């Protein structure tokens, strides 16, 4: 976790305090279930909650240091925690963790943390979607050039660009919802998952209270294909961030200048060059996307644990769990702010759209010519001829627009007069289905 | 694609013949839609289908060579195909591809291929699930030792092991179903996705006929977050394969020998050592899992295309599309056969289970002692003491079982007599919830 | 391997014919060494070579089918090959492979193949370096704008850009040389690498004849850290390709047009838009780079084989070995051709360089002002003020150049008069050290 | 960075204090060089050093908070640092950073940090190599079974196993040395690397003082292929760690028990099962290896920066730089301690070696039979027959050893009598070349 790329709410999920509180909640709920079942005395379950809850609520840095100290001796984190808890709860503490194994606590805790993290990410995505929708509607009919291969292709609108990103993030949201369900399970099933010493009803009780499902088969651990799928969903979302960030980086480059990240008063673009206004947010997001994406691979490697479990996944998750969720949360929020405040230059968009003399209308002329009876092959050659003449000579003396080059071409002129050509390249044709697309994306 | 790891049905999906047939189907359907809408003459649409269909159906290696030849001149694959089609269809061919762009054909074709591939993978998974269920039920109560960290933990059953893998592959199946839906979209929206020269109704018509959804916003291409999610789902499935393969590799190792891959008559395990019977299938599956998993990263890197599209994803998909699906199909089939014929040695399972003198019952003794009034800490120390004595001295003269060591321990004996100890470690306790777990996995 | 991205010489290294010839060479050399040592009769070693060599030289598709047939029975590739060889060699064949294990043949063969592949890659790099050097010298003083963050920064030369890429590929060449040495080892050490049944002198003999080093400790297999390092070197090279490809893609984009991939007569940029000339080669290279890079991860996962070896690496290498080398070979050759024929537009470079009214000289003015006594902070603000005024208003009525804005600024004008300002932004300053850099890269 | 997996010395390299001290050193050296060259007044350079050095030496948390505060306004880290420095240095500070760009400081600082990190890793590797050598020599002739595919193959020694790992880590050491050289460069070349406003002699001066090479062509940044190669070298080393960790995990598993991680007094293996002694260190190392390996991919993706640079690499490096080096440092130290204290059980090794009735000698019998005149094919079948009989029936009544089964086989007995068989399987044959291998690895 890099503090610079971390926000407090997500970070708090992964703090020791938070973890120990969840551990206590799991242990206390399990004790309550066992108390109801008569596995342990109900009175002791009550005392565990009563004395343990304030201890968990008020856990301090000193307490954590004490737990760490016990862990240094026992070399076992859950035992260290239970020992510390027992120091406050007293004799009833011996009924905590009855028939359970550490992973019952650790894995269920991880589920709770990942579910909370997913909820924050979903909230982040809602804000991002709202910002994208607002900007998309604002620029629904702002003309701009669509580019394939970085080359001007045909007109589109800036709103359509944003609608596409909106749709992509809406899919990411659905993936995070699915990923949340993947990891929202609880296991309280004992050392190899057989419930040999703990009743399955305990698991059901704890799961229900924590808003989780029971894990159908746990084997000391919750199976790691769930977590791998979770981190893959984050990786796809990170890649979607990179796509939008890359778009903004392109739009801001000096030769394009169709949009620009907000430049704060007092901000300095470069220590050397006072003239610089750089798309640093979107570049930063590009890097953060690499980071989050990179965590999918170790998460996938975590799946093939040995037999009922080995603990190799644990160290991986101490990195990947916090780092992937904290970084993605930060990135989504940064992207939202960036898109919210993005300065858009519609005039530059029009200027760029027109800068190649109208060749962006080549397909429409091609179609008009084939409709007028030219073979596809012949029409293609005629239009390519006029387009290349436009492109390569536009800035030179005698250079003329695509339209003029077409009208000067005998083969074209034999099929289309000026009026027919004008009709073919009428810009209103380009945007007549924008409403349809918006309706598909945003509804009705 | 490595022929050794490829099966014909999945391979066929990716053949040039198959691709060109899908291309024709898309073009012919689009022409039919345009014919209905009056964009092109209905008669020409009819001729395109009538003359083109037999050409597509009978496409030969010579035809493919001819298309390749045209591509070498035009350096454009779809134009090469259309030119070749036009050679057979004649004049009506100029109404093919009207207002469309190559990616309309290419991307919708890829959708069709990935959907077909997903269907094969789902069929593979169904066979695997059936095999796993059969073996799980066969060994529902076959006792074996559960191992955490590779160390004997507590008794479980071989059926429970398999039920866990069944549940994991059932989740993988659900993920492939979701992944199939991710990529099951159709785009016929023109050069930058604005439908400037093609009616959205054409897309709706083609999508419906191909069993696809329309892509809400395409930008010449179908957005690649869909494909990234698809290949991630494959990567998770590959990792699940690796987990089961790893289990079999462990079970077959010389010191364990609890299960063994079927050894064919005539098979040779080693060119040097005639005694060898190696788990080569499961090792092979481990490697194939690495391969399939490795394709997730380039697929994720494919998402951030420039502006409305660049073509960098295309070369990646020429590898990843066939290789990931063909390899996973092969791996699933190999795994199914392997599990179907796996030789299981219940006697060895029992022998291993008992080989540590009964220390696998340590938790149950721990619980009995705490129930009998010892502190958790005190009980832990007593049981650890007896277990370590058992473990380290079992094979030595005077070494004795865990049970005997416990009874010889004063602190333990003060709390539990032989009858109480026997009750605590009664093996029937271990499997009393197997039915519950099976019901969770396979239904009541 | 995707045929479209494969060249014959590299592909041939990985053909079955090639592999079986190398296997024979290893077996024949080992027999000759054993013949000299007296482990086997020298006469039989002679016969193995005499009868086996023509069989290996003339190996046909039918032979390969026969070997495959034997493998289907034995399920062991090396035994199948030896059996087929024995059919031609006769009785002496029983002295082949004496005391050896399959991996002695397989791993040493892989070493030979990877060394040959590395040699081709080095030759590819030499051609690329030559092309880059030629173009770098051609454009040593072609002015162009240097861009950080996609934003105009300061003037540089197109030759300097290329010199940087040259230096990067020179480093890649050194890495491939090192990677070649990593994998250039021979193991003939028997089932677990102890030389229990084969004399280490055999390994020394074979290694020397094949131009390899002996592997200090093999354990049936040559350790896979070597191969991982090899594929990592390829991955870095692929990333260097991506960097140059990305540069060309940027230079060709419509708003920049400073360079362009050669456009072949007859080439069609788009099926829909006849005006298109797309940077398809560099985009393709970007994708191929992702593919080659992706193979590093499974190669790294191959390192941790179990005990003296497991065979999980083998299936991975059947993909990664050919695919990574063939694809990288193709990509390097494509890049070389692309750079060789790249169309460069110096006029556009100058036009772009000047398009922002001279703000690219901001640092030099900043320095002149601090030298003239302004505080760094004060100078920065003054220059930023003039630059922003230039940038945002250049195209508007009354917009003026950076130089004019500076002279109109009281604080600046109080420190620098027109002559001093002209001296500060004299473009000759920018390129005075180009010779130094070229000497560093290409030598004095 | 996860504190649990971090050691102080490596962590300190990446602290803000450390970074700012290196920044100051670079700025002060550059100023001194400029003072010598007369670019700035020598007196000011002297003052920069004199007043700045104590400020850098004594940098406190409060100072860092002050720098952060300035950065929040300027949104530029280097400018914030320079502003803070200027607060202490006074007027001469305006001569700091003359003609330089932020990356001159940032990238050269990163080089210094990575070089220091590499030095610590090399020291770690030296300790690991020493431990491995000591244990290898201790167990040079400790017999143990070599296993391929997890199946008993032939005898080897535990010392040979360790010698192989020693050789692998010696290669890793060489790779880290090469990786250190990759990143040991200095760039002080200005905004686009042209030295337009800073003399190349400044770079030479600073590089020499810092023990770095000059970067032949920098383009504002030091090219990232260097860093990618660096992190790949770390990834290979991590994979080597995983291989040794996996070996130990296997050796400790309950059925093998040939070696065991040191179990501390007071250590608890499991919260549930007091009998557990788990190989938690080696499992942990397996996970840490995944983490370090995972950082290679984003480092490779960092190479293709746009034009002269974009800043997307920066956020990646804030994770990867500290996390990969700190985690690898921790892992190497943990591995060293683990190997140093590894409990080895030679008796169990012998017991396992003999547990399959001697079939591990099958190749030697195969060779003896072929030497005695049987065809390879015939000998293979005879030996396989006896081996399978041994293996499958050893534990049953009437089961007998491989030797006895061979002698009872008519075909074998016709070729080899008891004495000849004994000679063939004489265990002294197995280890006669151990000295040779040790000499190859450890020298003479």
Automatic annotation (TrEMBL), chains A, B, C, D:
Q: Does the keyword Lyase apply?
A: yes
- MF term (GO), any: lyase activity
Q: Where are the transmembrane segments?
A: none
EC number in record = 4.3.2.2
Q: Where is the Adenylosuccinate lyase C-terminal domain?
A: 357-442
Q: Matching CDD domains, A to Z?
A: Adenylsuccinate_lyase_1
> Keywords of this protein's UniProt record, alphabetized?
Lyase, Purine biosynthesis
**Pathway listed:** Purine metabolism; AMP biosynthesis via de novo pathway; AMP from IMP: step 2/2; Purine metabolism; IMP biosynthesis via de novo pathway; 5-amino-1-(5-phospho-D-ribosyl)imidazole-4-carboxamide from 5-amino-1-(5-phospho-D-ribosyl)imidazole-4-carboxylate: step 2/2
Q: Which reaction does it catalyse?
A: N(6)-(1,2-dicarboxyethyl)-AMP = fumarate + AMP; (2S)-2-[5-amino-1-(5-phospho-beta-D-ribosyl)imidazole-4-carboxamido]succinate = 5-amino-1-(5-phospho-beta-D-ribosyl)imidazole-4-carboxamide + fumarate
A Pfam cross-reference name: ADSL_C
Per the record, the domain of life is Bacteria
The family assignment reads: Belongs to the lyase 1 family. Adenylosuccinate lyase subfamily.
Q: What is the protein name given in its UniProt record?
A: Adenylosuccinate lyase
Q: Which organism is it from?
A: Teichococcus vastitatis
């Amino acid at each position: 976790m890099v503090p610079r790329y971390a926000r407090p709410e997500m970070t708090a999920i992964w703090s020791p305090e938070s973890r120990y509180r969840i551990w206590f909640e799991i242990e206390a709920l399990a004790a309550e279930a066992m108390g109801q079942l008569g596995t342990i005395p109900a009175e002791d379950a009550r005392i565990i909650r009563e004395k343990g809850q304030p201890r968990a609520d008020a856990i301090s840095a000193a307490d954590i240091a004490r737990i760490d100290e016990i862990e240094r001796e026992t070399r076992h984190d859950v035992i260290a925690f239970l020992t510390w808890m027992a120091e406050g709860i007293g004799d009833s503490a011996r009924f905590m963790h009855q028939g359970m194994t550490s992973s019952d606590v650790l894995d269920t805790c991880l589920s709770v943390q990942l579910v909370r993290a997913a909820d924050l990410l979903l909230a982040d995505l809602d804000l991002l979607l709202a910002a994208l929708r607002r900007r998309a509607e604002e620029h629904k009919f702002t003309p701009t050039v669509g580019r394939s291969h970085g080359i001007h292709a045909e007109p589109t609108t800036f709103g359509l660009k944003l609608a596409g990103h909106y749709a992509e993030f809406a899919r990411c949201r659905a993936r995070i919802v699915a990923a949340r369900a993947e990891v929202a399970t609880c296991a309280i099933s004992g050392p190899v998952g057989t419930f040999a010493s703990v009743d399955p009803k305990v698991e059901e009780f704890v799961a229900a209270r924590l808003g989780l499902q029971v894990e159908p088969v746990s084997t000391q651990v919750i199976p790691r294909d769930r977590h791998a799928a979770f981190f893959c969903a984050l990786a796809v979302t990170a890649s979607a961030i990179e796509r939008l960030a890359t778009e903004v980086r392109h739009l801001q480059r000096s030769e394009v200048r169709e949009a620009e990240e907000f430049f704060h008063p007092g901000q300095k673009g470069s220590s050397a060059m006072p003239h610089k206004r750089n798309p640093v947010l979107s570049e930063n997001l590009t890097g953060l996307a690499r980071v989050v994406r990179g965590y999918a691979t170790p998460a996938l490697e975590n799946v093939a644990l040995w037999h009922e479990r080995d603990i190799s996944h644990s160290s991986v998750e101490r990195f990947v769990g916090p780092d992937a969720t904290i970084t993605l949360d930060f990135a989504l929020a940064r992207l939202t702010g960036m898109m919210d405040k993005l300065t858009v230059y519609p005039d530059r968009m029009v200027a760029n759209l027109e800068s190649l003399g109208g060749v962006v209308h080549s397909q429409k002329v091609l179609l008009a010519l084939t409709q007028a009876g030219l073979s596809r092959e012949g029409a293609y050659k005629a239009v390519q001829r006029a387009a290349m003449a436009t492109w390569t000579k536009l800035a030179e003396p005698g250079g003329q627009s695509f339209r003029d080059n077409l009208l000067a071409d005998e083969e074209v002129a034999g099929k289309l007069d000026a009026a027919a050509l004008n009709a073919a390249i009428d810009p209103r044709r380009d945007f007549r289905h924008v409403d349809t697309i918006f309706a598909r994306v945003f509804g009705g």
